[in-house]
Design a protein that fits this description.
The protein is mainly alpha-helical. Helices cover 77% and strands 0% of the residues. It has eleven helices and no strands.
């Protein structure tokens, strides 16, 4: 959905050459920043609440900073190390306080899925900074979403539900594609290019707050 919305904008801006030139790197970002994490969180949603999944997602800046230190050689100052430690304690505390599920019935695998997704996000943000810093953020968003859609096309076909999704479900999907993915990623990749992945990934510290609120308001989560 996001790819269909963003590709016409890329065409209108005359950025097809940029899209073709950066396609290999865009494919990697599409796989590690969208296709795989979305599939992992989709699986986790079958066993965990949305709020709890979002709390695990708050570990993303920790892995992002780790990749930046190991790969991009960004310095880990004393203040940054203290911040990472505090962030880890905060995420661990939130998870401990809200986790009421055992490791049976797929919950254990769901927790592992929620932990693997932030690892992929941390890698992807640093990969984008290293290989796509000079590409327009619109191209990165459109190209990565196109690659993600292509990667998920076959699995989606093989697991297509027996009962077709309702019109309301399709409308919600389009809304998520346009706002939570398309527009959000344009802003996100621009922030990575200008401020760096470690700073950009700190936005995920806000995700649990909103996820818990939306979960309580719309789906009755505690």
């Amino acid at each position: 959905g996001a790819a269909l919305l963003l590709l016409p904008v890329v065409h209108w801006r005359g950025d097809w050459a940029q899209l073709r030139a950066h396609w290999p790197a865009l494919a990697v970002v599409g796989l590690t920043n969208s296709a795989l994490p979305f599939a992992l969180f989709g699986y986790a949603a079958l066993h965990l609440t949305g709020g709890l999944s979002a709390i695990f997602n708050a570990a993303t800046p920790l892995f992002g900073a780790l990749f930046a230190w190991l790969w991009l050689r960004e310095a880990l100052t004393a203040w940054r190390m203290a911040g990472l430690a505090l962030g880890f304690v905060g995420v661990a505390g939130l998870v401990t306080a809200r986790t009421q599920v055992g490791l049976a019935d797929g919950a254990g695998l769901a927790v592992l899925a929620c932990l693997l997704a932030p690892v992929l996000y941390g890698f992807s943000a640093n990969f984008a900074r290293r290989h796509l810093a000079k590409a327009p953020s619109m191209v990165v968003a459109a190209g990565s979403q196109t690659a993600a859609a292509l990667a998920l096309a076959l699995p989606a076909t093989l697991t297509w539900p027996a009962v077709p999704p309702s019109a309301r479900a399709w409308a919600m999907m389009l809304a998520l594609s346009a706002l939570s993915t398309g527009l959000a990623y344009v802003l996100f990749f621009r922030l990575i290019a200008r401020a760096g992945p470690a700073f950009a990934l700190t936005v995920t510290y806000l995700v649990p707050l909103f996820a818990v609120v939306w979960g309580a308001l719309f789906v009755g989560e505690s």
